[in-house]
Structure formats: structure tokens, C-alpha cells
Write a structure and sequence with these properties.
By secondary structure, the protein is mainly alpha-helical. It is built from 27 helices and no strands.
């Protein structure tokens, strides 16, 4: 089977590009039809694949062309499985798999078929379907194919099944670069950075994907210093640094509060003319915010040409965490005017901003709007922030009533916010209640004992301080 990367060989078919409009596609289609080229199953397959793989928005049209083609080839069906596996309708991949199995031309699935179906299962986050596909590829004898093996590792990574990843990897006698990189990514993503690093160090070749996976893994596991050390090694070895690398570097700087290194990373991005993607720009805002440089954070925000809900939420959150509650709410209003729908993360930042400046009614209004206006079900963190909002304003009875009216069991965050407020306003009785509730949930929560002890100390009740200790 010819490579799927070389799908457009005929001059007319080569005119199909990612930017080709539907009207232009129809003109190309007409030209191929008039010249009788679509009677050739191979050329018809190339045309269908070109449509499907170049632009996801034209997938429907590629399906229409398929319905009018004679004797579709395995290449054609594989191309459509591949295209749908990356689309918003990945389940459609199985329709074409079924057509292969029931083909009147006795087509049989090959290694490419199963490579794309495995990725479809990963996209759907459907372990049961993944198991079925695994059984099918075993039946056809493709369990030792390198493409399928790396696909399986990727699939089990998406399912969060590290044991299965190890099982697949250990069955490979001589794993190639792709399989090794997939396994490094899997272990790094799921927290097994020790094994990931051992494998990474043993690799005779390491592409940028492996380096980025390892650095990202360190950041996700809270080992930010190791992430920056590895990034420095990556530079010394002359590996090409891209936007993905810098997202991890900026995240590491944010975790460490390392403003100087964060500034250096920003200069590196500009000097090397790396594309300021939405993700990279959002991470830059987050880094400056967490390092306390609000001016640079907002400068980065306003310079971004493209912003999504996470970009806005990061900037709103940055203002809130740096005490600029009113500006945080102003930016939230601008976000809504810009037609961007807030999400759960946005409201965490908004409620935090209200808490910082003591705007209780404003915060309550936004909390209610989550479900009534935006259809967002408040999570535990939102409830905890509302308790904090009431508590900081000294409205302890309302904070307690709010906790008691929660539709789920109150968590440590909610009781902790109340306990903090009790310390500020020296309310021993309610502080004791909050402390007791925290200990019921987390018996070894030493912070609750410390705060309760401090409340007693503030009121000079030394006997109780001694008892708590």
C-alpha cells in the first residue's frame, strides 16, 4: 500500500489544498468526472482522500463522492477512517471499518486500518471499544506492527492505563524511536517520571517530541527545577526548541515564581521568532501573573491577536490573585462584550476577584448566573470561594448557612475558608465547629489544629491552646 502522505499524484487532484473552497472542490470534481478519471478506483481514492485529509470541514463532501464511486479501495476507506479519527465525529470511522469487513471485493483491514482505529478509540475515550479493536487486530496478526504498537501506547495513555502501556511496551522486542517516544510521553504524562527518564536517557535518538514530553512530565509532577535543567540540556545538544517546549518552560517558571528566568524565556521566544500561539500566550500571561508582574501579564494579554476563553480567564485570574479585584471584574465584562462564553475556570477567577475586594452581593450574583445564565454547574471550588467571600467580609453566619445549604457534602476547602474567617474575626465557637468538621474529613489535617490553636491564642485561652497542641 502506498504511503498516505503521497495521496495527490494526478495534476488535477494535486489542486486540492487545505484552503480549497467547496465551490472550487466541485469544479475540480467536475473536471475529473468529464475526463473519466473517476472511473479509475485508484484515482477516485486519491481524490476522496485529498478532500478528507486536507480540510475537516469538507468531510461530508468526501463521503458523498465515495457514495458515487465504484469499487472503493482499501486506501480510500483507510483515508476516511484516518480523517474521521481526527474530526469532531470520530465514531464515523467505524462505519468505514464496517464497509471494509463487508466489502464485495474481499477487502481486509491492514496495519494502517488498525493504527487509525486505535487512535479513534483514544479520541472517543472508550476503553471497551479499544478492547474490541485490540482483539480484532490480534485476530488479523498486527499486534507486532510498530505503527499499531505506538498507537496502542497512545490509546492506553488517553485511557490513563499505565499498566497496559507497560504491557504493550514490554512485548516489543526492539522498540523503534516512535514507540520509545510514545512510552516516554505516556509515563511522563501519568506521573511515572522515573521510568520515563530512564528510558529517555537510554534512547540512542531523541526527537523534539521526546524532549518536550519529558520536560512537560517534570512540570506536571511538580519537579519544575528538573524541567528547567533538562531544557538547558536540550539547548546544549542543539535540539530544535518550539512553542510546545516554551509552554513547559514558562509553566515551570510560574511554579517556581522564577521571574528572571521567565523574562529570559519571553525574550528567547521573541528573539527566535517562535509563533505566539494561543496556548503559549496564555501560559506567558499566567507566568507573569504568578510571578507578581501584573503589568507584563496584561501587556502580553493585550498584544495577543487571538484569545480564547482560557486566555481571558488567565488574565482575569492574574488580576484577582494580585489584588486587583475591580479590574478583574471590568475585564470579565469586556470578555462578555467580546462574545466569549465564560467557563468554570473563569468563574473561579471572578469569585476570587470579588472576594479580594469584598463585593459579596456581586459575587453572589455571578455565582447564581453560573447555572441560571450559562448552564454551568458550580463545583466544590466555587462553593469554597463563596464561603471565603462571606467569611472575609465578616458575614460568618451567612458563610455557615451557605455551607449547610450545599447540594453535596461540604469539603475541606469550604470548612477551611470558614476556619480562616473565624481566626480573623476571633469567633471561637464557630472555629471549633469548622476545625472539627475538617478533622472528620481529614484526620491528619494538622493545619486545622494550628489555626484553631491560633484562635485560642488570640483570645488568650492558654488552656485550650495547650489541649489542642
Amino acid at each position: 500500500m502506498s504511503s498516505l502522505r503521497s495521496i495527490a499524484k494526478h495534476p488535477t487532484i494535486s489542486m486540492v489544498e487545505p484552503c480549497t473552497t467547496l465551490r472550487e472542490l466541485k469544479q475540480i470534481h467536475t473536471q475529473l468526472f468529464i475526463n473519466g478519471l473517476l472511473n479509475n478506483p485508484h484515482l477516485a481514492g486519491q481524490f476522496i482522500a485529498s478532500i478528507a485529509l486536507n480540510n475537516p470541514s469538507n468531510l461530508y463532501y468526501s463521503n458523498q463522492v465515495l457514495d458515487h464511486s465504484q469499487k472503493p479501495t482499501l486506501f480510500t476507506f483507510n483515508s476516511l477512517i484516518r480523517a474521521h479519527s481526527k474530526s469532531s465525529t470520530p465514531h464515523r470511522s467505524f462505519h468505514f471499518y464496517s464497509r471494509i469487513l463487508h466489502s464485495t471485493d474481499n477487502l481486509t483491514p491492514d496495519n494502517y486500518t488498525f493504527t487509525f482505529l486505535v487512535r479513534t478509540s483514544a479520541q472517543l475515550l472508550a476503553p471497551q471499544i479499544g478492547s474490541s479493536i485490540y482483539c480484532a487486530l490480534m485476530k488479523y496478526g498486527f499486534q507486532h506492527d510498530p505503527h499499531v504498537q505506538s498507537g496502542l501506547i497512545y490509546m492506553y495513555t488517553e485511557f490513563g492505563d499505565l499498566v497496559a502501556c507497560h504491557r504493550v511496551f514490554s512485548s516489543i522486542c526492539e522498540p523503534d524511536l516512535v514507540c520509545q517516544t510514545a512510552m516516554v510521553s505516556a509515563c511522563a504524562k501519568m506521573g511515572d517520571v522515573g521510568f520515563a527518564r530512564k528510558l529517555f536517557d537510554k534512547m540512542s535518538q531523541r526527537d523534539p517530541i521526546a524532549w518536550n514530553a519529558m520536560i512537560s512530565g517534570y512540570v506536571q509532577c511538580g519537579q519544575s527545577r528538573e524541567a528547567l535543567t533538562l531544557f538547558n540540556l536540550m539547548q546544549r545538544e542543539g535540539v530544535k526548541v518550539n512553542e510546545v517546549s516554551m509552554v513547559s518552560v514558562l509553566s515551570a517558571c510560574a511554579c517556581l515564581g522564577a521571574l528572571d528566568q521567565g523574562r529570559w524565556a519571553h525574550v528567547y521566544i521573541e528573539r527566535n521568532k517562535l509563533r505566539m500561539t494561543v496556548t503559549l500566550g496564555t501560559t506567558l500571561i499566567d507566568m507573569y501573573s504568578k510571578c507578581g508582574n501584573l503589568n507584563k501579564a496584561m501587556e502580553a494579554f493585550w498584544r495577543m491577536k487571538e484569545k480564547n476563553v482560557y486566555t481571558w480567564s488567565s488574565a482575569i485570574g492574574g488580576l484577582a490573585m494580585n489584588g486587583a479585584g475591580e479590574k478583574c471584574l471590568e475585564l470579565f465584562s469586556l470578555m462578555k462584550q467580546d462574545g466569549v462564553q465564560p467557563n468554570e475556570v473563569t468563574f473561579v477567577s471572578v469569585l476570587r476577584g470579588c472576594s479580594v475586594v469584598g463585593l459579596v452581593e456581586e459575587g453572589h450574583k455571578h455565582f447564581v448566573s453560573m447555572s441560571e445564565v450559562y448552564g454551568i454547574e458550580p463545583q466544590l471550588e466555587h462553593y469554597g470561594l463563596m464561603v471565603d467571600l462571606y467569611g472575609r467580609a465578616g458575614r460568618l453566619d451567612e458563610a455557615l448557612n451557605f455551607i449547610n445549604s450545599m447540594p453535596m457534602r461540604p469539603h475541606v476547602g469550604a470548612w477551611g475558608a470558614l476556619l480562616n474567617a473565624c481566626k480573623i474575626y476571633k469567633n471561637m465557637e464557630m472555629g471549633e465547629l469548622a476545625s472539627r468538621k475538617i478533622v472528620e474529613i481529614e484526620a491528619k489535617n494538622h493545619g486545622a489544629y494550628v489555626l484553631l490553636s491560633n484562635i485560642y491564642a488570640d483570645t488568650k485561652d492558654w488552656d485550650r491552646v495547650s489541649n489542642v497542641r
